[in-house]
Amino acid sequence: MWDIFASRGNLATVFNPREAELTPGTNHIVCEADQLRELSAVVVEIQDVGVRYFNYTKDVMQLMEMLALLGDEAPSLYIVDHLNPSGRVVEGTIPAVAGEMYVPKVAHRHGLTLGELVNLYASEMGARFPIHVISAMATDANRQLMPWTIAPASDIPGLFTSYLYSGGGLWNNTTLSPGIGTSRPYEYIGAPFVKPLRPEDLPQAHGALLRPCSFTPAAGRYAGERCFGFQIMLVPGEPYHSLLHTLHLMRWFREHYSAFEFEPAFWTKLADPVLEAYLREDISFDVVQEHVKMEEQKWIRKAKRYILYEDAPYRMK
Asked: CA dihedral in degrees (96, 101, 106, 108; nearest 10)?
């Protein structure tokens, strides 16, 4: 899009991802308040993936915080909206404790578009700068084609990845590798300390098959080391609750491998004491399922106030 503005002579600057390599920890779009003060408008076009801890979405929320601090000097914000590749399906809970910075109070898999998220965040922060959302239906690309043709981030290589990310993104803050540095991030899960597995060893879930495998990441955690674990294979056309299955798998690894650990940032990202209690082996999976069900219904009621399109978020039955 920037080339269109450049051809018209009104392009001032371009903010690109800081790095485009295989490390989700450095995939960010960074700008400074002084750079924004010199602009009359900021146009944002990113492909969100429907999960609250996606880096570029957090970067947009940080941008909004900076615009709010600029007060009357803030440029207008334009959001070029896109369809949510994860669809309207909802998974998980609204943060119940202080969570990550620049993360809106939405479910883990929220079912909104970026434009809808921006409206919600603007409402929560009391934003006073002008915000304009350009409809996802404004171009043929959104009406007729796939949600994206270029991968939105190095660790989201395909459309199916977004279906795994609500749970898969949590592995980044554990001692297991979620396959970063392979062709199947968030589909391959494992570590050098994991012994070769059998399918019947692992907790199963509707909508997915688990295939024992090994892989050697080219980057990220355990780069160059052979990891043993499993591959998540989605069953076409079947609903799959990535978050709940991931929690079930994490507890299994906690019970069977002393080397499996959670980093401090994991609990901040999870942001739910009930889910934390399950992973610490204090409550049963049935309790977690009921808690998640109630929280998803609560989030859907909130989300409906911000939808811009005809379809509404829903939870898996």
From this structure: -90
pLDDT per position as a tens digit, 69-107: 999 999 999 999 999 999 999 999 999 988 788 888 999
**Which tokens sit at 101?**
């910075």
What local confidence, expressed as pLDDT, does residue 147 receive?
Answer: 62
Rounded CA Rg of the chain? 20
Q: At what angle do helices 114-125 and 55-70 cross, to 10 degrees?
A: 40
Q: Which residues contact 80 (CB under 8 A, 6 or more apart)?
A: 1, 43, 44, 45, 134
Distance CA 156, CA 161 (A): 6
CA angle 154, 247, 313 (to 5 degrees): 70
Structural domains in the chain?
2-154+301-315 (3.40.50.12170), 161-290 (3.90.1150)
Residues paired with 209 in a beta bridge: 233
What pLDDT was estimated at residue 279? 99
With 0-12 CB in 10 A as exposed, 13-18 as middle and 19+ as buried, what is 237?
Answer: exposed
